[in-house]
Amino acid sequence: MAVERYNHREAEPKWQAHWASAKSFEATEDAGRPKYYVLEMFPYPSGRIHMGHVRNYTMGDVIARFRRACGYNVLHPMGWDAFGMPAENAAIERGVHPKGWTYENIASMKSQLKSMGLSLDWSREFATCDPSYYKHEQAMFVDFLGANLVERRVSQVNWDPVDHTVLANEQVIDGKGWRSGAPVEKRELAQWFLKITDYAQELLSALDTLQDWPEKVRLMQKNWIGRSEGLRFTFDLVDANDKPVEGGLTVYTTRHDTLFGASFCAVSADHPLAKKISETDAGLAKFRQDVAALGTSEENIERAEKKGYPLGLYALHPFDKSKKLPVYAANFVLMGYGEGAIFGCPAHDQRDWDFATKYNLPILPVVGPQDGAAVDVSNGPYLEKDGEEAKLINSDFLNGLTVEAAKAEMAKRMEATAHAKRVVNFRLRDWGVSRQRYWGCPIPVIHCKSCGIVPVPKDQLPVTLPEDAKFDKPGNPLLHHPTWRHVDCPKCGGKAERETDTFDTFIDSSWYYARFASPQADQPVDPAAGKYWLPVDQYIGGVEHAILHLLYSRFYARAMMKIGQPNVAEPFANLFTQGMVVHETYRTEKGEWVLPVEVVEKDGAWVHAKNGESIILGGIEKMSKSKKNVVDPDTIIAAYGADTARWFMLSDTPPERDLEWTESGAEASWRFTQKIWRQVNEAAALPKSAPDTGADGIALRRTTHQIASAITGNLDNLYFNVAIANLYKLANALNAGLAAERRSPSLDAACREAAEYLTLLMAPMMPHLAEESWKALGHATAVVDTPWPKALPELLVEDEVTIAIQVNGKRRDEIKVAKGLDQKALEGQVLALENVKRAMEGKPARKIIVVPDRIVNIVC
Ligand code: ANZ
Ligand code: ZN
User: Fold this and answer.
1) Could you give the CA distance from residue 292 to residue 159 in angstroms, rounded to a whole number?
2) Is residue 331 within 8 Å of 298, Cβ to Cβ?
3) What's the CA-to-centroid distance between 456 and ligand 2, angstroms?
4) Which of 223, 316, 516, 719 places its Cα 20 to 30 Å from the Cα of 532?
5) Contact criterion met (CB below 8 Å) for 307 and 313
6) DSSP annotation of 257
7) Distance separating alpha carbons of residues 104 and 547, to the nearest angstrom
8) pLDDT value at position 729?
9) Under a CB-based contact definition with an 8 Å cutoff, are residues 316 and 208 in contact?
10) Can you tell me which atom of ligand 1 is nearest the CA of 256?
11) Any idea which ligand is nearest the CA of 453?
C-alpha cells in the first residue's frame, strides 16, 4: 500500500491547535495526584530564539511530557526575563521604547516557541516587566527592609565620566568604558544591598543536601561562597621616625604559619590609611587613580601587574621587633575582603613573590619539604602540593612543625596577646542591587529630607516606570525625567524624591519560579499553590548560571521565608545543565565569516553559493552571531518540522555535552520520521488480533517490552540520547517484523503492538508525529491523554533456555523455560510433562538433580 509522505507542515500546526483548545497542558492543583514541576531557565526576550533555546526547551519538554504520561500532575510554565540593558540600548540606538521593543520581541519569540510544540501552560505566562509581577517584587522589598535583610551602604562603582553612567564590570574593557572609550573612574555611591552574607554559612552547608545537582555546580558555588578560616591580628605601626602610629595595622591571613617569612605589608588603595596619606602625597593620589582605572572586576585585578606605592610606614614583627616591614598601598589588595590589608610572604605566595621581586624585598623561605631538602625560591614561590606534609623552617619556635600544627601554635600564641583573633571569612559579598537604569523594577522607596528613607506604602504599589522617559542623553532617564521622581513624602507629606535606581535584573529571576505556582495571586505566592507546587522538581539551564542566578535564588527563597512568604529553602530539587550547540564555522579567503546556508559543496570543495568563492572551514565553535555559524530555528522547523529538530537535538550526544548541529544529521532525523510514518501505516493495515505469546510474535514482543522498560529508565535519568538509540532499535525490530514473509496472527499482533509502543515511547520527543501515528493506528483519543506504555514483566526475561530432561539417566524430553528459572518452579513443570510421567511409571521421584539452565535428571 502506498502511504502518503508525512506532512509536518500540516500535522504540526494542527496538533498544536488541538492541544491549545483542549487546554492539555494547563495545570491545576490536585491533591490526589503527585505533582511534578519542570522548569527551563526562562529566556531574555532578545527578539528571536536560537538553537540553544531549542535544545534547552526540548529537554524540558521531553521530561514534562514523559512525567505527564506517567501520571504526574505536571507544571511546565514559561515566562520572560524581560528587564535589562539590551532594551535600553535599543532605545538609545534606535529610538524605540524599551517597553514596545520588549513586548514585540516576546510576541515573536512566543510564536516561535509555539511552533516547537512545547507542552507549556501558557495560561501562567508573565514577563518580569509586567507591573503585576514587579508589584510583588516591590512589596517583598518593603518587607525585606522591615526584616533587616537590606542595607543602604556606600560602595564603589565603575563610573564612565563621559557617558555619566555606572558601568558593570563587563562594560569596562582595558580600564575604559565600552561605549565612550573614556578611562573609567571609581566612584562612591550609596546603594542598596541584600544581606546575602548573613546566609553564607547556611548556603554553603545546604549544598550538601543538593545531591541531585551536578557536582561541578556545587563546587562552583562552594568556591564562590569561599569560606576561609584564618587569623586577624594587628601589627604595631611606626612612621619613618619610629613614632608609633595609633591603631596599628590590622590584617587578615590564612597563613599565619608563614609570619617569620613576612617581608612587607600591603593595604588596598582604598584603605583608610592610603586615603589619608594621599591627601598630602600627590604620588600616592596618582597611584590610587591608576588602581581605580582597573575597575572593580576581581578578574582584571588578578591579571594586572602587581604594583605598589610605599606609605612611609613600617609594621613591627610581633616576635622580632627589630624587623620592620615596609607598608605599601598595592593594587592586588581588595578593600572588600578581610581587613583590606595583608602581610606579604613572598616565598610562599605568587602575588607576594611578584611584588617582592619588583621592589627588591627579601624572599625568605619558611616552609620546606618534609625530607629537609633545600628550598629554591629564586624562580618562584614554593607552594606545597595537595596532601604534602610540608614543615616549617627559619621560623624560631615553629621550626619542624607541619603547616597545620604551626598555624595552630601561632594562633595560640597570638591570641594570648589580645591583638589577634581566629576568624572565619567568606569571599561572598553582599548583593548590590541598585542599577542606575530605566528598564528595571523601580526600587520602592522615597527619600525625604526630614524622615529619611521612607518605603512606599504597599497600597501605593506598584511604583511604575514613566512611559514618557527620554533616552537622548547619557545617564539614568528616571533621574532626568521632569516630574516622575518628585512626590510627597508618605510620612510627613512634605516634598520628597523617589529613588531613581532600579533593581538588578537578577532579583527578577530569583523568584519567578515561585510566582509560576500562582501567577495571578494578589500576593507574591498563594500559600496553597506554593505548598503544592514548590520546589521545582527539575530545573534545566546553562552552566553559565551555575553561580549567580542559582545562588541568588537559593538566598531569595530563604529571604522570602523570613518575611513569611510561602517557599522552600532549596527551590530546585534537581538541576541539569545542558551543553551548548556548536557548529562548523566558514570563512572566505579574505577572512569574512559566512553563514552555513551560503556554503555549498562543489567538486569536493566548499564554495560560496552565490559567487563561487572558495570557503575555508574555520573549526567547530559555539553558535554565535559574530562568527555567523548560526542556523535559524525557524528555517529548520519550516524545512524539516519541529519533531525533526527536537529529535536531532537529543540524538547521539549526551545532553550535558556540546552538540554539533549538522545539516546531514538533521536530514537523517527527517528521514527517520518518514520511516516511522511508513511503518506505522503498514502496521495499521495488518489484520487485527489480540497480542498473544504465540511463537512467531514472541521475539518481537520481548524486544518491544524490553525497550519500553529501558526507555522508561533512560528518561527517568535524562539519558535522552540513549532513549533515542533504543527507539531506533525498536523501529528496526518492527521493520523486521513487518518484512517477515511468513505471516501469522501472532506476528501481526506483535507488529501492531510494537508500532503502538513505538508511537507512545517516541511521543515526548516527537509529539506531533506521535499524535498523527496514534490516529493512523485507529485511536480516537490523543497521545497526550494516553498513559505511558507498561512493560510486561513476563516479557522482560532476558532469554529462554532449553533444558534436557532425563529419567534415571536416560533422555526422555526437553523443555523451554526462562533462563535462571528457580529450581522449585522448574521441578514442578518437569514432573508435569507427559513423557516424564510415562517414563517414571508412577514411581515417586527419589532424587532430582538439576544442572542449572541445562539438565534435569530424575532418579526414581
Ligand atoms: C599571608 C600569606 C602568606 C597569605 C602566604 C597567603 C600565602 P583566602 O583563602 O581567599 O581567604 N588576603 C587577605 N586579605 C586580602 C585582601 N583584602 N586582598 C587580597 N588578598 C588578601 O585568602 C587569604 C589570603 O589572601 C591571606 O593569607 C592573605 O595573604 C590574602 F604564603 O596572608 B595571606
Ligand atoms: Zn517625610
Assistant:
1) 10
2) no
3) 11
4) 719
5) no
6) G
7) 31
8) 97
9) no
10) 1
11) 2
Show the cell assigned to 32.
490526589
* Full-model pTM: 0.86
Q: Could you tell me if the CB of 254 is within 6 A of ligand 1?
A: yes
- 502 C-alpha to ligand 1 centroid (Å): 35
Residue nearest ligand 1's atom 2 by CA: 255
Cα(254) to centroid(ligand 1), Å: 6
Contact 584, 594 (CB under 8 A): no
Can you tell me the distance from the alpha carbon of 56 to that of 644, in angstroms, rounded to the nearest whole number?
A: 15
Residues in the chain: 860
CA–CA gap between residue 498 and residue 487 (Å, rounded): 7
Look at ligand 1, atom 19, and give the residue with the nearest C-alpha: 333
CB contact set of 494 (below 8 Å; sequence gap of 6+):
448, 449, 450, 488
Cα–ligand 2 centroid distance for 750 (angstroms): 81
Task: Report pLDDT digits (tens) over 307-365.
Answer: 999 999 999 999 988 899 999 999 999 988 999 999 999 999 999 999 999 999 999 99
pLDDT band at 693, cuts 50/70/90? low
Please give all residues whose CB falls under 5 A of ion ligand 2, grouped by chain where several chains appear. Answer: 448, 450-451, 489, 491-492
Angle between helices 745-762 and 663-685 (to 10 degrees): 140
> pLDDT per residue over 124-157, tens digit each?
999 999 999 999 999 999 999 999 999 999 988 8
Report how far ligand 2's centroid is from the alpha carbon of 495 (Å).
Answer: 7
Q: Which ligand is nearest to the CA of 451?
A: 2
**Could you please report the per-residue DSSP string of 571-600?**
SBSSEEEE--EEEEEEEETT--EE-GGGEE
Considering 181-185, 251-255, 612-616, 648-652, the range whose residues carry the highest mean pLDDT is 251-255
- Report which bound ligand comes closest to the CA of 251: 1
The stretch 636-665 carries a mean pLDDT of 93
Return the residue matching grid coordinates 490526589: 32
Q: What is the pLDDT of residue 336?
A: 83
